[in-house]
Amino acid sequence: MKTRTKIGQGARNWQRWLLWPLVALAAWGAHPHSAAGSAHPARTMYRIVHLSPSANGPLDINARGQVAFTEDVGGDRTMARYYDGTSFTKLGTLGGAGSHVNALNDAGQIVGGSNFSPASTDTHAYRWSAQTGMLTLHTPPYNFATSAAFDINNSGQVAGYLPFFGPVLEPLHATRWSAENLARDLGTLNGPSLAIALNESGQVAGSTRNAAGNGLAFRWTEAGGMLGLGTLGGADSDAVAINRGGHVAGHSATAAGLTHAFLWTPEKGMTDLGPRRADADAFAIAMNDRDTVIGIIRIVDGPYRAFVWTGQTGMRELGTFGGRNAYAHDINQPGQVVGSAEARDGASRAFLWQGVGGLVDLNSRIPLAPPGLVLTAARAIADNGAIVADSNAGLVLLVPNPATHVAPTVGPIETGGVARVNQALAVSASVRDPDPGDTHRAIWSWGDGSKDEAGVVAEKNGAATVGGQHTYRAAGIYTVRLTVTDSSGQSATVQRIVVVCGPGAYLSGEGSFISPPGAIRVGKRQSGRASFAFLSERQSDGRRAQGAAFLRFSTAHLSFDSKRVDAVTVNGARIAYRGGGTLNGAGNVQFALMAAARPDGRHRLHIRIWHVDPATNRELVDYDSQAILAGAGAVRIGLAE
User: Fold this and answer.
1) CATH topology of domain 408-641
2) Is-annotated flag, keyword rRNA-binding (predicted)?
């Protein structure tokens, strides 16, 4: 029974949802979970299942440890995927170019959004099951508009929104679909409304917006209809979760102009959860049936910290691994919390928190981890203890039960120095297999249109190293992919970006970092791993080029590709890019990237993406990382000459 919902959301300008539907749906993407299970032992060890080398966007895990996730397939497209514990399924689309997931119930039903025609970037809500395939939840005749499905319970009821063409201030209405796909308009409170989450009783939590853009959290029930939950004294509030008891968690503006997390119950109304300090905001991320709420504290001009709130202890910060920031991402019914926290060198590490003993670095719980593999963030946890995590080898599932006759685990692809045109580039990766008698074969895909090549495998007793080399004939940014298959036919795939420098290259870079909450303006509570790459070359006359550069940046279902570079500035250890491109394959947006190397090997980064509203001619920010500090080795930037 699904009673817990996690969501990264907080849109302030609903019109932008219609301009940027993929970003909007990711920003409001729900992560529901199901009935309580038993907590696993404190010293649980995990095995790794590779889910995707290129996951980018919403995901969910159910009580059984099955996973629905969104995968970047290139060409500014994402596709919905499902892992049922044994095999992988491609969910397809409603006829368009791409799809994504938002929620998964214990019956294996998935809801999300999909493009419905090759010519449209609008997305329609869908329901998918293995028996029916992908079915649209969109109601004609408004096929040109966007709809969304954010949550599904174990009865098959779905929460989301449909377009509503009534009063001008009500373009969207919160909607609940029945198990038979019949839509019910839940109404609104003087503005557009969204149904974000629902419990097993069919009660719904969501938010509305008025003409000024202020939000109001609501709860909807069969008996009482839509009820506004009020605020903590400020202008707006947002609901993010509803549990078995019909209690709602969210965050609200205060009279002092801050944002505090709240818990609403029918008996007590809205309770301010804190923080109890005048220089910090707090945002709820998820809660369970015990009214345990998790979230993120943002200290003004300071770090981010993960918190857990209970009625007995109040708000507790969870700490870090010696670094500056920590983010809570999910909680299960037994009360286990997962997230990411920085170490002293600024590098991000996936954590598990169980109420005693502080944060556990999940990297210490993988006995068969290949050398170089790092879990950077734990994003979701099932009631049976399975964990979905980001790593430098892609999205993985951590399974607490040991097993044999399973796919091998592959570490990140390593390169032997700077990649240059017409020079052989050596690549390698380490492999570990719980079946020591297995043998392995490997295939390299170079991403430049050349033929795939077999890798050179050296192995003994379940440990292997895969090598290869390739010569690129043109400068650019390429995706190198490695697939390792064992003698039983089971395989795992990893990939990485490689920046290949030509003879005129003078600047190149690639890397990853944790994108903080607040960076995505239509998803202020969302955080996650972000990656980028760039390359600049001299013009034929020897001058440094301003237009011959590449920039690719992606995080949390937001993908940017540069189409032009207007300026590249190098000043010692500081570099700056500025230009234009597309966001999720559409629009005409501007970008700026600034990076500065530090003596300790870390880099201070700032990436900003924005567009101009044609109606008002005002600049609207789509993404702003602010100044962030990436861990040592996470970013490689340097002069190529």
Assistant:
1) Immunoglobulin-like (2.60.40)
2) no
